[in-house]
Design a protein that fits this description.
This protein has helices at about 15-20, 25-30, 75-85, 95-100, 110-120, 160-170, 250, 270-280, 290-295, and strands at about 1-10, 35, 60-65, 70, 85-90, 135-140, 150-155. It has about 325 residues and is α/β, with parallel strands linked by helices. The protein folds into 2 domains: about 1-105 and about 130-170, Rossmann fold (3-Layer(aba) Sandwich), CATH 3.40.50.700; about 180-314, no CATH class. It has a 5-stranded parallel β-sheet, with helices on both faces. It binds iron/sulfur cluster (3 copies).
Length: about 325
């Protein structure tokens, strides 16, 4: 029996829904797990049930799971306490692994953000930046492993429940867990000719496809529709049924990959690699508008996105 503590920091809640998406498979692992802390499901007060304690406290656990990145001092404190109390710590989802969508804010200074939200907004009255009874924001959005040591990363926005199950099973059996260094393209059944004879189209422009026939659909990039498959780690298409089907989640919905599983390997630079991939099939990568944000959409933590000097324009 392994004890489990789960925390959610700067999140949308989708990663917790992905855990529930394990469905009946959850019943297979539940007898081996004892949840000792999970704010989304269980009432546990950080400072004692009646607020009698002065130190934030999370119960000890064999496995700790954190979803969400770190955007304020309270979240930083909770992550540190989780690290202290959990023998193995898992970062769940792209927000925890890389900062996620909220880390797009790292392109701006805190002052810029406060000005935009509280004073420059055209639809609300100008106001002071709130500071009473709320934790102060950190200077930028952090991935969890920038603040505490993380043992296992499970990326995805949200994660694939099959991978959560694989990771938990490995931990229960005392085996290491790591995702392979493969790209989404490696799992993609679309037709590729290694060249594009069209220009880059606007994002979300319709692709050409016949419903249900992935094999005859031309690769999105070759259709001129930006797809981050070449620079994104595979795994989102894994199924329980074990029939080997791995069609990437977005491709299955006739949409291009947006990069939510993050870089294929640690230290890779998807922006540079994607520009190379586009050039290699004859597309002018410089025409990708707002490419700093678009090609780092889920991975702005770990210091990948930061404000540009004012002179360079934003
Ligand atoms: S990774 Fe995606 S689903 Fe998970 S908390 Fe972040 S935004 Fe939500
Ligand atoms: S770029 Fe996109 S559509 Fe093309 S092969 Fe890779 S994942 Fe599939
Ligand atoms: S295709 Fe790309 S964006 Fe879509 S779920 Fe898979 S990794 Fe994420």
């Amino acid at each position: 029996m392994a004890t489990v503590a789960e925390e959610w920091l700067n999140i949308c809640g989708g990663c917790e829904v992905a855990i529930l998406d394990l469905g009946e498979k959850l019943l297979d692992v539940l007898p081996s797990l004892e949840f000792v802390h999970m704010p989304v499901l269980m009432d546990h007060k950080y400072f004692g049930q009646t607020g009698e304690k002065s130190e934030l406290e999370i119960p000890e656990a064999d496995v700790g799971m954190i979803s969400g990145g770190i955007r304020n001092e309270k979240e930083k404190h909770v992550a540190e306490e989780m690290r202290k109390k959990c023998k193995t710590l898992i970062a769940l989802g792209s927000c925890a692994c890389f900062g996620g969508i909220p880390a797009l804010a790292n392109m701006y200074t805190l002052d810029d953000i406060y000005e935009k939200v509280y004073r420059d907004s055209k639809t609300t009255e100008s106001a002071d930046t709130p500071s009473k009874d709320i934790p102060p924001l950190t200077d930028r959005v952090y991935a969890v492993d920038e603040v505490v040591n993380v043992d296992v990363h499970i990326p995805g926005c949200p994660m694939n429940p099959v991978i959560i199950l694989e990771a938990l099973t490995c931990l229960l059996e005392g085996k290491p867990f790591e995702l392979p260094e493969r790209s989404v393209c490696d799992d993609c059944p679309t037709k590729r000719e290694e060249k594009s004879d069209v220009g880059l189209k606007r994002p979300l422009q319709d692709a050409e496809f016949t419903p249900g026939e992935y094999n005859t659909m031309r690769c999105f990039n070759e259709q001129g529709i930006l797809c981050l498959g070449p620079v994104t780690r595979s795994g989102c298409g894994k199924q329980y049924n074990g029939n080997g089907e791995v069609v990437p989640r977005c491709v299955k919905g006739y949409m291009p990959c947006r990069g939510c599983f993050g870089p294929i390997r640690e230290g890779a630079n998807p922006l540079i690699d994607m520009m190379t991939a586009l050039s290699s099939i004859g597309l002018d990568a410089k025409l990708v508008e707002d490419r700093r944000a678009l090609l780092n959409r889920y991975i702005g933590g770990q210091n990948r996105l930061r404000p540009l000097p004012a002179k360079a324009g934003r």
